[in-house]
Amino acid sequence: MPKFPASALAAYRLPHSKQAFLLREGNEGAVCFSTKPFDKNEKALQFSGSKELFDPSKDALQKHLDRHAEAVNSAQKPSTQEEHLSRCSKAITLLQSGEMNKVVLSRVSHFSKSNPKADALFQALCESYPTAFVYFLIHPEHGVWCGATPEVLLTVSNGQFETMSLAGTINTRTPRAWTEKEYQEQAFVTDYILAKVKNLKPKELQVDPREEQLAGHLKHLKTRIQFSGSLPTQTILESLHPTPAVGGTPLDKALQCIEQLESHDRRLYTGYIGVRDNDQNAQYFVNLRCMEWTGAGYDLFAGGGITASSKPEDEWEETNAKLQVLQGVLEKL
Fold first, then answer.
1. Peptide bond before residue 242 is cis, with ω within 30 degrees of 0
2. Domain limits, the chain
3. pLDDT tens digit sequence for 194-227
């Protein structure tokens, strides 16, 4: 079994911010870093501490990693193209029979070149993706993860809440028009999240017009949903997670399909991750565009929403485009 630190350490940078921070577990402070795996039955974990400005020249992440963590072989088996196409075809057959409206299938790709320094990798992700939540996490139970995710799960500020429906993907390097498949895929997510929010009996519910969101070389369809209420933040998080953007609809059937077809453990991929300064100020994100350190490289995760009109080859290309978000940064270091 891998050996990881007795205490957690994280570097993070919020979207559109010019400042990155280092958070050490155990130091006095009110900042709380939270993680939740994709599996809804697994518990959310969090640690608190005081934050300091991140300084890449101090190599704080790498020193923590070198001091406490042992290299391990990858526990995830990368999916071949043939395997992923076969899984997509099986899912499409189920969708065309009316079993589901949408299911999200993912795959793993292993990057085994020499490991870049942790602090340099985090800094490079911050520079490459200024609108994403960027993090590097070293955790006693989760291991070592980093990523740059564009999707907000929940923002909390003075009793006001905001979530979003983000789905559909276009690679801007090969631009094209949105298709009905992507509009439908995003609508499934929006309808589901709206139903969940309405069940919470919110005040002042507002649904913004659908828009596009750019995330590196990828473009997505987004609908912002804002509301107010007096429910605890954790209750809202547990109600929203996992969304159809990472599972599918109906969610229960989609999760069963994922369990049957995917051969890997998603772990923190498509879970949620975030930071809370206090009960009135927090930001949580769906953990997309992420990877897990194995000691011999990184396991990269990517997936895509499949509907009855999907084509397996297109789904393979979509995952390739999403994997390039992180692999492109790794290749330059």
1. yes
2. 9-332
3. 999 999 999 899 999 999 998 888 999 999 999 9
